[in-house]
Design a protein that fits this description.
By secondary structure, the protein is α+β, with helices and mostly antiparallel strands. Helix 10 runs antiparallel to helix 16 and helix 11 packs antiparallel against helix 15.
């Protein structure tokens, strides 16, 4: 009888667990993506263990809250195990415990080492997943393998540590740790991929600390070796642990939060409340001489209202990883030591002041005592200096990379960031003195940013004007007779006097072309570019009318904005927004090169602008002259298509029949369609966009006669040869960022080759181009675009 009773008691746990669906029997398994398989649930339904889909078709083996809407993941198999695809399997084995296999059967992870034979496993209502032997002795516990979260009743021994995720929704290993060090609980960063720990950025002193306890009531404290407690946080009395979930989390941004959430699944608008954050201000806490700090290198950390860090690149810098705002930032244009006597003077650089901002580490020179003006000049005259920090009559010089950047009201420092004048995110300061040579250079750069017509101006026949009766073929009318009577939003009609005053008597000439001159001015809308057409010869008159009509009807973030116009007699002018970073051409073919990420961002913007012109605005428009000189960049390097002097308003009959016109764009960008008996459609812009794409990729002109190596003179031919030979790295030689992004590089080149097909019917539309560029749809292998260099 005694033996029988003993067996009954041994079997009792299995009966209880089986009834609650919390038991993991040896041989039991779960398959990722199998909708018919239920996860293993704790007895009171508080926690679940199984596969969670964390990305499209990818699953994570993990434990999560099961009763509340915010089903936070509190434990997962391991940091270095990427989410697994559908069909992956976890099973309970006698020798290895939990064993995770791929859909092909390969071993991905196991819970071992196991000291005995596993009889079964279970998940408790504490969230602890436990494997036991036949004597119900625990052999392995998830509580002893913490990842980034502690739950009530969970403890950390001296050897234990928490590791952050890489990002909020990425489960690979992050750079932050919470661990014991010399009896204290510390927060530190580590140098991935190694385990080397940098010096702590926050210390909770316990001296003789031996164990961290997060008890069942929600108290978090350290137990010293003598048994005394060092309290870290205590639960909020209004939110008792028997009705609320509590957790401690080392977040991906390096902040530890102690939080609670109601257990009531029907509670309205319930969410996690972070009532304790460690440290209070991580931006200020970061001061180590190694590592980038809470944010990436060359970034600035500010504290949000929830005491979490917000990261932004310093002015003149851009993210290396556009999908991760916490990543490092790089200079949009690499600072260099200029040759000549004007090295690093105010002719080339300006200083942007950043109040309450500091990069407190990695100084390479200190001046004390120093005035603020002396500090600024010291940086301007030092080509290695990219920033100076001034505080208390002291001046610290900084060089790249800038680390531990922060902006905080408690910071009494003011930083001055040195920026090249043509890349400042604020714009150019025209009041500073300039040398004669540099002034001419800057005027040329600015001139490229103004909407001048191309050098090959051909007569534009506007069929739409004929149908509306705005143009007479037999007599010339005043220009205003041809202007539209429609609604042009905020476009304003200026008088000649108003624009003369705005430009200070047409004093500052920015550039000139065959149809007119461009001046800089200031109106109530801010800085503007005023384009004055010549004495209204037939070509310039048509270009003026076309630009007013086309741009007046176009409203898109990637189309240059026309503020207004003037048609006072023969003095016809257009008033455009002034774009401080000039034309794309100056960054592709000049000394200042844009980063690969920024070039791809610009490509996306141009494509969206063309899609708008072709399909989304009121009247379909063919631009007819897409080239880098006609793409302008605003202060954030957003591209805006400009110069619509050759544009065509596309009517429905024009999409089926050839338009009899001798319009031609610019040499090197002209589609073969203009020279054949084929309909001229929006595909001519697609062709020019393909050529422009290759120039953006390679940072060199199509048909560059300065390239002396045989076979490289015509970029479009050379690009196809490199693609065929599998040598795309040659196209971007020396651009290691582009080479490291070979997948996108190849995709961009292939899309460009499709765009420059000689047969317009083989070219994609811009609506097809955009998902191809973004990698949303696959791109097939393009045929040879044929030889077209002779026609361009």
């Amino acid at each position: 009888m005694a033996c029988m009773i003993s067996h009954i008691f041994l079997l009792l746990p299995s009966v209880v667990y089986a009834q609650s669906n919390s038991m993991l029997n040896v041989g039991g398994s779960l398959i990722a993506g199998d909708a018919s398989a239920s996860p293993w649930i704790s007895p009171a339904d508080h926690f679940a263990f199984g596969f969670r889909e964390v990305d499209d078709g990818l699953f994570l083996l993990c434990i999560w809250y099961n009763k509340i809407d915010e089903k936070n993941i509190v434990w997962f198999a391991q940091h270095d195990q990427n989410p697994v695809p559908k069909g992956s399997k976890v099973e309970v084995t006698a020798s290895n415990g939990l064993l995770l296999k791929s859909s092909q059967g390969g071993e991905l992870w196991k819970s071992g080492p196991i000291s005995s034979v596993v009889a079964f496993g279970t998940i408790y209502d504490t969230g602890n997943l436990v494997l036991l032997d036949s004597n119900t002795t625990p052999l392995w516990e998830s509580f002893n393998q913490p990842v980034d979260t502690l739950l009530p009743t969970q403890k950390m021994e001296v050897k234990d540590f928490l590791s952050s995720r890489k990002s909020q929704n990425t489960y690979s290993l992050g750079k932050f740790q919470l661990r014991f060090s010399e009896g204290n609980l510390v927060l530190n960063m580590r140098s991935l991929p190694t385990t080397y720990a940098y010096e702590p950025y926050h210390v909770i002193q316990a001296f003789e600390g031996n164990q961290v306890v997060f008890d069942e009531d929600g108290f978090l404290y350290i137990i010293q070796r003598n048994g005394k407690r060092v309290n870290i946080s205590e639960p909020e009395s209004a939110y008792p642990a028997n009705t609320h979930y509590y957790q401690v989390t080392l977040n991906f941004d390096g902040v530890v939060t102690v939080s609670h959430h109601t257990r009531n699944p029907s509670a309205f608008n319930a969410t996690w409340i972070h009532f304790k954050t460690i440290p209070n201000n991580i931006c200020v806490a970061m001061r180590g001489n190694l590592s980038s700090g809470a944010c990436g290198y060359n970034s600035i950390c500010t504290l949000n209202n929830d005491q979490r860090p917000s990261c932004n690149c310093a002015p003149g810098y851009s993210l290396i990883d556009l999908n991760d705002k916490y990543s490092d930032c790089k200079p949009i244009i690499q600072p260099i030591c200029e040759d000549g006597e004007n090295n690093s003077t105010t002719d080339l650089y300006r200083l942007q002041d950043l109040p309450n901002t500091d990069w407190p580490t990695q100084d390479y020179e200190l001046f004390k005592p120093f005035t603020i003006e002396e500090c600024k000049n010291a940086c301007l005259l030092d080509c290695f200096c990219v920033a100076v920090v001034y505080r208390d009559n002291s001046c610290w010089k900084k060089k790249l990379p800038l680390a531990n950047g922060r902006k905080d009201s408690g910071e009494k420092s003011i930083s001055f960031l040195k920026l090249r004048r043509n890349i400042s995110s604020i714009g150019q300061d025209s009041n500073l003195p300039r040398s004669k040579g540099k002034k001419n250079h800057d005027t040329l750069v600015l001139a490229l940013s103004i909407l001048l017509s191309s050098s090959l101006l051909i007569i534009l026949v506007l069929a739409s004007f004929i149908s509306r009766g705005f143009i007479s073929h037999h007599r010339k009318k005043h220009t205003s007779d041809f202007l539209p009577r429609g609604n042009f939003g905020s476009m304003q009609k200026f008088t000649f006097k108003e624009l003369r005053e705005a430009t200070n008597g047409f004093k500052e000439e920015l550039g000139r072309g065959s149809c007119g001159v461009v001046y800089k001015g200031v109106t109530e809308v801010g800085s503007v570019a005023v384009k004055i057409f010549n004495d209204m010869f037939e070509d310039s008159e048509k270009e003026f009318k076309t630009e007013v009509i086309v741009v007046g009807e176009a409203h898109h973030k990637n189309i240059a904005r026309l503020h207004g116009y003037c048609d006072d007699g023969k003095r016809c002018m257009l008033v455009y927004e002034f774009l401080s970073n000039g034309s794309l051409a100056s960054f592709l073919f000049g000394d200042s090169k844009l980063s690969w990420d920024l070039r791809t961002k610009i490509t996306y913007g141009i494509a969206r602008g063309l899609l708008y012109l072709h399909e989304e605005c009121n009247t379909e428009i063919i631009h007819c002259d897409i080239k880098p000189q006609n793409v302008l960049l605003d202060e954030h390097y957003n591209p805006k298509i400009s110069d619509f002097g050759l544009a065509k308003l596309l009517k429905m009959d024009q999409s089926r029949n050839r338009v009899e016109t001798n319009i031609k764009g610019t040499t090197g960008y002209i589609a073969p369609d203009w020279f054949k008996s084929t309909p001229v459609t929006t595909k001519v812009d697609v062709y020019s966009f393909g050529v422009l794409m290759l120039e953006i990729i390679c940072c060199r002109r199509n048909g560059d006669m300065e390239v002396y190596e045989q076979g490289r003179e015509i970029l479009v031919d050379w690009a196809y040869d490199c693609y065929q030979q599998g040598r795309l790295d040659v196209l971007v030689e020396g651009d290691f960022e582009a080479i490291d992004d070979m997948g996108r590089l190849e995709r961009f080149v292939v899309v460009a080759i499709w765009c420059i097909q000689e047969d317009p019917y083989q070219r994609p539309t811009m609506r097809q181009v955009i998902p191809m560029l973004e990698g949303i749809v696959p791109v097939s292998t393009p045929p040879s675009p044929c030889s077209f260099s002779s026609t361009s």
